[in-house]
């Protein structure tokens, strides 16, 4: 669980970064609303960040890891920081409206299923829903940014995603995996 103060600080940092690097339209911000601030990163405690504010907390960690990875790469395969931050902070916005509070206390207590899926939404992968939300609300992506978001949650048996990804896709996928590992092993305040 995160304190209200931490949720507020994370949201401020998230939106300040988006404003600074120019990848959050007013239209998208209004659409995501308070739901993005409150959204968990997953539905159950056995995964990661299944608590209020968990999504933004996770996205900020992804961005931190991605910047560190990118900075450690040879210059010829590094990607632009602005573009990398854009994909890191937008690649999972599809989760903003995906989870709703689980009204079954038994499922919460016995299975750790803190949230359930919003059945009013049609089925899409997180990357697909994130790109959909962003493009429907005034955000455009380069081909490389689009590929990174669309491929971050693909199964590693997808040979196209595995072998023909641009560096940004690999950085995002790796940073996301590291952030999940960090989330699972970090006690929150």
Write the layout of secondary structure elements.
Blueprint: H1 4-21, H2 26-38, H3 54-72, H4 81-90, E1 99-101, H5 105-111, E2 115-117, H6 126-136, H7 143-151, H8 159-163, H9 167-185
Antiparallel strand pairs: 1-2
Helix pairs in contact: 1-3, 1-4, 3-4, 3-9, 4-7, 6-7, 7-9
Structure description:
By secondary structure, this protein is mainly α. The protein has helices at residues 4-21, 26-38, 54-72, 81-90, 105-111, 126-136, 143-151, 159-163, 167-185, and strands spanning 99-101, 115-117. Strands 1-2 form a two-stranded antiparallel sheet. The radius of gyration is 16 Å and the shape is globular. The N and C termini lie close together (6 Å). The model has no long low-confidence stretch (mean pLDDT 93).
Q: Please give the share of residues in helix.
A: 55-70%
The structural class is: mainly alpha
Tell me the major beta sheet.
2 strands, antiparallel
Number-wise, the strands total 2
Task: For the largest sheet, list the strands in their spatial order.
Answer: 1-2
Q: Distance between the terminal alpha carbons, to the nearest Å?
A: 6 Å
Average pLDDT level: 93
Low-confidence stretches: none
Shape descriptor: globular
The proportion of residues in beta strands is under 5%
Total helical segments: 9
Summary tags:
single chain, about 190 residues, two-stranded antiparallel sheet, 2 strands
Question: What's the short version?
Answer:
The chain has 189 residues and is mainly α. It contains nine helices and two strands.
